[in-house]
Amino acid sequence: MKTPTMPAATLAERVGWSGSASLFRAKVAAIRPEYAPPDPADRLVHEPGFQVQCDLWSPHEPLPVGAGQHDTPPVLVMTSAFSGFIQARMLPSRTTPDLLGGMWTLLQDAQAVPSRLLWDNESGIGRRRPTEPVAAFAGSLGLEIKLLPPRDPESKGMVERMNRFFRQRFMPGRDFRSPADFNGQLEDWLPKANHRYSRSRHGRPDELIVLDRERMRELPPVTPEAVFRNAVRLPRDYYVRVFSNDLRPWTRRSLGGSLMSPRGCQMGCVRNAVSDLLENHDGYYRTRIGQGRFAGCEGRCRRRHGVVQGLRGLR
Questions:
Q1: How far, CA to CA in Å, does 312 sit from each of 26, 273, 281, 285, 304?
Q2: Among the CATH numbers 3.90.580.10, 3.30.2350.10, 2.60.15.10, 3.30.420.10, which is that of 51-214?
Q3: Which helix (H) or strand (E) holds 85?
Q4: Mean pLDDT over the full length of the chain
Q5: What share of the chain is helix, strand, coil (3-state, %, to 5)?
Q6: pTM, rounded to two decimals
Q7: Model confidence pLDDT, tens digit, residues 142-196
């Protein structure tokens, strides 16, 4: 039958039906499935080492982040499409440098690079196309960062289900003293989560990941740049706004009592871990002044959990 979806009224006209219209429609509805074409069905087959799905989720309850403040920092989750192996880490924020640093940290833990990272329209990654730092990050690793169209969570349903899995299996009954404590507890729990049996895959993620990573590439010899950098001209009061904080550059010479007045200041914030942001300031905020000279900085804190008061003498 060429037109299996032809309306019943049209069929009745073509065959010259003169009886009850409702009876004819009932008869057509009964025999129409026999002439309907087969319903196309597609099952995705994920090749080993090809794709890792990425997403962010936040704890449903705030946790202490230092200086008497509470917040819900984002958690980066990366799930292998073939093996279902889960990696996760809490980040300071959803900004591009933090997302790149989090992805690089998890890739270093895996000691392998997949062919594709799948993201939705996260503002720190890009809308419709990757941002310039994200594109540079992908190019240095030799992978593709694919952005999904808006309102399409089903395309990365694996990592979406993992977010629900975290809320149901990891979060209940736990107390966290800091984001570093959150990452520590999460690191201890993930081996148990990756050892569960997957009926759809007929195996355990921590066993299937071996084949997964055999098909991935090795880490590049050059570390990709995942650092916030901004070159500014110092204003008259020598305070520079970085992440909602007013920072005042100080050179090594100024630590002895005199403040140098360079014309330009290149700020670099190295964001390696949440603990660096919230607890251990050594090595977190760095100020590069003039011709490559590192210095400390004195800050007037504006951010809720960005305590940078009296930070001086960094190396």
A1: 84, 20, 10, 10, 21
A2: 3.30.420.10
A3: none
A4: 76
A5: 30, 25, 45
A6: 0.66
A7: 999 999 887 776 677 788 888 888 888 898 889 999 999 999 999 999 999 999 9
